[in-house]
Each structure stands twice: as structure tokens, then as C-alpha cells.
Specification:
CATH topology of the domain at 291-295 and 419-505 and 562-716: Aminopeptidase
Structural class: alpha+beta
CATH architecture of the domain at 291-295 and 419-505 and 562-716: 3-Layer(aba) Sandwich
Largest sheet: 10 strands, mixed
CATH superfamily of the domain at 291-295 and 419-505 and 562-716: Zn peptidases
Number of helices: 15
């Protein structure tokens, strides 16, 4: 493995420091059961929503994953969930949700409906205007100041045992493994005791991944005071005890008086971010270079399409070869039946009108089929149009129809140009002589809070460089790269058309998959398009299905967005640390991020020294995040991607780590929030109310500042 990874590990050690189509159709769904209180306001019909489901068992989750469903997170099971149940956050339509409910799924929370993001975006802008009208001021933050025992039947071992305080409450979490790995009925209970003699218990659930037992775990449990001991007992008689440690056990240094922060006033579109970058370049020419990355994205553009005919009966999809913004929006298409008998299929295209004259038989009846018309259009006008039979219309007689207008379906104006993606380079020595740290965000379009994190981080460094000695020292010792919007085209679509858009706008579908009914499912998942551990190498977590939520594209690095990330690593070999900022769920992860099946064979794992370095750096950064409002990334959500989340074949962190030797992490900002009324953890979603997104931007920017300290301390030990 590359020598830089080992150097990083030693230095830190010394420093101490469902695809929707894959689900059954609504027509085959059994009527859903009675609604629970949590199921009020469910999506209906084709409306999408992000929901937290309780599935009956692991097998149900496996089926959902195998279907290519749009899974957002896998939260921990709460104490109120029944034994064997599995929780999952997933984007589904009302039809799909009805089907899942009929199969035993229970809705625990409707986290976000389809148009909530647009409303919250508007609310954030309104609040920003109101704040500006009152006069904005820079704010200053004040910082907040055992062994195992063998038994005759099975042996238990604590993998994790931690406690922490957050929001005026104390929480404890444990992971326990049993040697009875093949027995699915083993139950494990953990008893806790506090220093003043209070005690209680909570049950763990069996956690399997890819059909293999991993451990027993439960979500964080609320306890009355700091626990001093935990004892796990299995149904087979095994026991183990451990004194829980404080998590994460570290904290960042307090911010000095006058430290400037809170530069974020509202959600920011890619256009907003680009304007902010331009302003910062004017303000801080001695500290900042703007890098125009070499691969322009497609832009907020799509081809123009129209149904010729009636999709409910018989229709052909006519699509422009050029983008709609290239004078193809508004082109008309129509079909006509000649008055004469025995006429061949023909067409004309003039004055932006495509007229199809259908073939007639001996009695003057129309004999052209939808298949013939689609093939004819593509063959006659290959440079202007492509055509396909609308799903379900194959072999039917083509109707006389139209005129109908082609349209790209995009609602925003002025964004149709190819997009130049920009990165910021911040530091006093931007010549490669200092260790580089890369923070990049919004690979997934719908994760609106993530560029707020990276832009807040960048602006803190620039604004405090002249007044805060700590910031000045960091910019003396570290070369900082910030890529706020990796996927601008998808982000523009998410803001303006479909809030749940995850992918970019590159439509590589063919045939009936190009039916406009699929317009919200087209695109490539940028974070499945990299070259290490990808679906093209046999790893799971990505898909070659163009409609899948994790579509990996036509090949590795086929997309401009992923190629830009890698170009930064290639052109700036001093980059030794990277943080990929995602949302949501409150995770802190590192490689390996993918495994192959069968056998759950992961990419090579870091050696013990490197793994220790990853953990120690993670604790420092998690501790820094928690200083803002007490938000804590759970111990169970901290670790390799493949272990704490899922296999994400072809993700960027794996390529940066294995190919370039960069110590690469992933944030998932937006931790679950504890609801003391329901005694449950509640998800926040991709586009939470702006107040929550703003809080995430502040705490995770603090975490990125701590990452710079990790880089500085590591370099000092060399």
C-alpha cells in the first residue's frame, strides 16, 4: 500500500491525537392495514416521501436492498420496536409504501415529503431577507466548557461500550458479539449501573450484513446518570462486563474571543455558491485561489420529449437529439392519416413541425404500428430525433394525434449552459509545500446542508486569518482545498424540479427507460462512479440499471463530476487528507467502503496501526463537532463504511485512499434528534427546516477545522 498512508497512521498515533421500478406495482398491492399515529400524512399515489419504516425482519431489508430501492439510512432500532425488527429510511411513492405496508412494514416517521424541500428553501430565503432587513451582525460562539468471562455455552465480548452527555441527557451505547454466531435466536440484554446505585436494562438486537452475523447492538439508551458498569447476558448463559468509556473522550480547544463564524444565512443553490466564491476571491486575494476544474458538467439541460398519441392507449415517445434549450423546446410533432388508400409511411420536418403521415391499407385504414413509427422517425431523422414505443404500447396501431410540443421539463431559466465546477484553495503557501486537506460536498444533489458546511468552513478560515493566531497558524501549516458543489446540475434540478434528486442529469438510459415518466429517476450516482471497488469490478452497492438510485453510469469515471474530484487529487499530490461531506444520519466513516459477494469480501482493510489512527482522528473530530450544541456522532456510526452503513461500491473515498494514499473520511451530517416525548430518535432528512441545516453547518464546520489540526499535528511528527 502507498507509503503516505502508513506515514499518516504513525503520525496521528504519535500525535495522540429501491429503485422505484423494482417494487411491486400498486395494482398488485393488498390494502394497507390501519394507520398508526405515525402514519398520518402519508404520501399518496405517485407522490414521493422519505419515510422511516420498521420492517419485520432482516430478510425484508435484504429484499429492499436487492431491489435497488432508494435507501437513505439504516437507523438503530429503538426500545419500542419489536424483536427482530429492522429500521430503514427510504424514499418511496405512495403506491410503493402501500405495497410495503401490506408486506408487514410499519411507518414510524414521515421525515420529508416531496415538496418540503422547496418550501423550506423558500422559508430560509425569507428568513434571510428578514434578518438582512434588521441588520446582520457577526456572532461569536462561546464554547462549552473491565474484562470478559467465559461460560459453558457461549462467550460474549464487548466491541463498544461508551457513554456521553448531550442536550442535558446522558446516553449509553454498547455493541456485544457472541461466539454463538450461527444461532439466530440468541438474545442479549445489557444491565447498567450508575455510581449512585440506579440500574436498568436494555435489549440488543442481532445485526447481520450480507447474510453474515456482525454483532448485537441497540441505539443509544437514555439513562439517568453516567453509568459506571455494563453487564451483558445472553439467553445461552454467556456474560461479560465492562466499564463504559466517555465518548469520544476528546474536545477541541475553545474558540477565542472575537472568533468570527456564522456566515450562512439561507440554503444556497449552485449559483449562490458560485457568486459567494467570486466575492471571496475579491476579498482575500492573498489567501485564496479559485480553481476551475477541467471537466465541465452537462449543465442544467435535458433533451426535449413529447408523447405522440395517448400513453393510456397507444403512443410513441419522440425525443430531440439536442437539448431542449438548443431550440428544441416547442418543436411540434403530429401524426396524420392520408386521405388516399395504400399510402406508405412518410414524414416531413419543416418550420419546427414534424409531421408523420401514417401508412394506409386497401380501405384507407391506418396500418402503421407504434413500433414502425418509432423506427421510422429514428431512421429518417437520426440527427434531429430519436423515438421509442411508450411502455405498454408495443404493436398497437398508431393513432392520429397531435400536434404536441416537445419540452425538456425543466422549470428554471438561465441555467442551461455547461457548468464549470470550482474549488477554493486557501492558505499562505499554496505551492504544494504543505500537507493538503480536501473537503468536498454535494456529490448527491438533494443534500442541501452539505455545501453550507464547506462554505462556512472556508469563510471561517478566510475571515479569521488576520485576527485569530490559531487560524493563522493553520493556514501557515496546511494547504486547504474546498469543493462545495461537486454535482451542480443535479443540485439545480433538486432545487427547482424534484427535491429528492440524488444523481446528476446524465441520462444514459435507452429504449423505453427514456419514457418521460422516468424523468425523476434518470442520472448517475456520482458517488458510485469511481474506479476502486465499483460494480464494474464485482462489488455491490452500485448498479448498471440506469433507473436505479445507485446507478453507476456507463463505466468508471464516465462522469465529469467524479473526474473533477480525481483531477484535484492528481494535480495536487500534496493532498493527504480528504473529507467527503454527505447527509444525513450522523455517521463518521472511512475505508473500506465496499465488499463483493458471496462472502462479504471487503476491499483490503487498513492495518492495525492505520485503523488506530483513523479512530483517534475520528474521536478528535467528533469531539469538536459536539462542542457546538452537544450533537454526538454515535460510536456505532463511527467506523468503516462497509461495517457501519452498507457496501457503497465505487465511492470516492475508496479511490482516494487505495489509489492515491489519501486518508479519506466521510461525514453524514444531520444526526438523529432525540425526542423525549416519544422516547425515540427522529431523522432530520436531506432538506430539514433551515434552522436545523444552519446548526449542522456550524457544528460540522467546526469538525473540519479540527481536521486541519489533525493534518498539522501529523506533519509535525514527521
Amino acid at each position: 500500500m502507498p507509503s503516505r498512508r502508513t506515514s499518516f497512521a504513525l503520525s496521528v498515533l504519535l500525535a495522540g491525537g429501491v429503485g422505484a421500478a423494482a417494487l411491486a406495482s400498486p395494482a398488485s398491492a393488498a390494502p394497507p392495514g390501519p394507520k398508526t399515529v405515525a402514519e398520518a400524512g402519508l404520501p399518496s399515489g405517485d407522490q414521493h416521501a422519505l419515510v422511516r419504516l420498521q420492517l419485520p425482519d432482516q430478510a425484508a431489508l435484504d429484499r429492499l436492498v436487492a431491489s435497488g430501492a432508494d435507501i437513505a439510512a439504516r437507523p438503530a432500532v429503538s426500545r419500542s420496536s419489536r424483536e427482530g425488527a429492522v429500521l430503514v429510511d427510504v424514499v418511496v411513492t405512495g403506491h410503493e409504501l402501500s405495497r410495503l405496508r401490506s408486506q408487514g412494514a410499519t411507518v414510524l416517521q414521515v421525515i420529508q415529503k416531496q415538496d418540503d424541500g422547496s418550501r423550506r428553501f423558500a422559508d430560509s430565503r425569507k428568513a434571510a431577507r428578514q434578518a438582512l432587513a434588521k441588520g446582520l451582525t457577526t456572532t461569536t460562539r462561546r464554547s462549552a466548557a473491565g474484562g470478559t468471562a467465559e461460560v459453558s455455552v457461549d462467550t460474549l465480548h464487548f466491541l463498544q461500550a461508551y457513554w456521553w452527555a448531550s442536550g442535558g441527557r446522558t446516553f449509553v451505547q454498547a455493541e456485544v458479539a457472541t461466539t454463538a454466531v450461527t444461532d439466530p435466536d440468541v438474545e442479549i440484554t445489557v444491565a447498567w449501573t450508575t455510581a449512585d446505585g440506579q440500574s436498568g436494562t436494555f435489549a440488543l438486537r442481532r445485526f447481520e450484513d450480507a447474510g453474515e452475523y456482525q454483532y448485537h447492538v441497540a441505539g443509544p439508551q437514555s439513562v439517568p446518570a453516567r453509568p459506571i458498569s455494563l453487564t451483558a447476558t445472553s439467553s445461552l448463559g454467556g456474560t461479560a462486563s465492562k466499564a463504559p468509556q466517555a465518548w469520544p473522550g476528546t474536545s477541541a480547544p475553545p474558540m477565542p474571543a472575537g472568533y468570527q463564524q456564522d456566515f450562512i444565512a439561507a440554503y444556497m443553490t449552485p449559483t449562490d455558491v458560485k457568486a459567494r466564491i467570486k466575492r471571496l476571491a475579491r476579498q482575500y486575494p492573498d489567501l485564496l485561489d479559485v480553481i476551475d476544474l477541467p471537466h465541465k458538467t452537462q449543465g442544467y439541460r435535458r433533451t426535449a420529449t413529447a408523447y405522440l398519441g395517448d400513453p393510456a392507449g397507444a403512443a410513441v415517445v419522440v425525443e430531440s437529439r439536442r437539448y431542449g434549450s438548443q431550440r428544441m423546446n416547442g418543436v411540434q410533432v403530429k401524426s396524420r392519416a392520408p386521405a388516399k388508400r395504400k399510402r406508405p409511411l412518410s414524414a416531413t420536418y419543416r418550420d419546427r413541425v414534424l409531421t408523420i403521415r401514417l401508412a394506409t391499407g386497401p380501405q384507407g385504414e391506418v396500418i402503421s404500428t407504434t413500433d414502425q413509427v418509432a423506427a421510422f422517425i429514428g431512421a429518417r431523422y437520426p440527427r434531429q430525433f430519436r423515438a421509442s414505443v411508450e411502455a405498454g404500447s408495443g404493436g398497437k396501431t398508431m393513432p392520429v394525434a397531435g400536434p404536441t410540443r416537445l419540452d425538456d421539463g425543466l422549470s428554471a431559466a438561465g441555467l442551461s449552459h455547461p457548468w464549470t465546477v470550482q474549488a477554493l484553495r486557501i492558505g499562505k503557501h499554496r505551492d504544494g509545500s504543505r500537507p493538503g486537506v480536501l473537503a468536498y460536498s454535494q456529490e448527491h444533489a438533494r443534500e442541501w446542508a452539505t455545501p453550507l458546511v464547506t462554505m462556512e468552513f472556508a469563510e471561517r478560515l478566510l475571515a479569521n486569518a488576520a485576527t485569530d493566531p490559531g487560524t493563522a497558524e493553520l493556514l501557515e501549516d496546511v494547504d486547504v482545498f474546498v469543493l462545495p458543489v461537486t454535482n451542480p446540475d443535479g443540485a439545480n434540478y433538486s432545487f427547482n424540479d424534484y427535491n429528492f434528486q440524488r444523481k446528476n442529469l446524465d441520462n444514459f438510459c435507452t429504449g423505453t427507460d427514456r419514457d418521460p415518466i422516468n424523468r425523476n429517476r434518470w442520472g448517475v450516482d456520482v458517488n458510485r462512479n469511481y474506479t476502486v471497488g465499483s460494480v464494474f469490478d464485482g462489488y455491490i452497492g452500485g448498479s448498471t440499471d440506469c433507473l436505479s438510485a445507485v446507478a453507476a453510469g456507463t463505466g468508471e469515471l464516465s462522469e465529469a463530476e467524479s473526474s473533477n474530484v480525481i483531477s484535484l487529487a492528481k494535480e495536487h499530490s500534496n493532498i493527504r487528507y480528504a473529507m467527503n461531506v454527505h447527509s444525513y444520519g450522523g455517521y463518521f466513516m472511512w475505508p473500506p467502503g465496499a465488499y463483493a459477494m458471496p462472502g462479504r469480501i471487503t476491499l483490503p482493510r487498513p492495518d492495525a496501526t492505520e485503523e488506530y489512527a483513523f479512530v483517534q482522528a475520528a474521536k478528535r473530530i467528533v469531539g469538536a463537532i459536539s462542542t457546538d450544541r452537544g450533537t454526538m456522532t454515535w460510536p456505532s456510526n463511527t467506523g468503516p463504511v462497509a461495517d457501519v452503513l452498507y457496501s457503497a461500491g465505487g465511492n470516492s473515498a475508496d479511490q482516494l485512499y487505495y489509489e492515491f494514499g489519501i486518508a479519506a473520511w466521510d461525514f453524514e451530517v444531520g444526526n438523529d434528534l432525540w425526542n423525549p416525548t416519544t422516547n425515540r430518535w427522529a431523522g432530520v432528512g436531506f432538506q430539514p427546516p433551515y434552522e436545523e441545516a444552519h446548526a449542522e453547518s456550524q457544528e460540522y464546520a467546526t469538525g473540519l477545522v479540527e481536521l486541519l489540526r489533525v493534518a498539522r499535528d501529523s506533519a509535525a511528527q514527521r
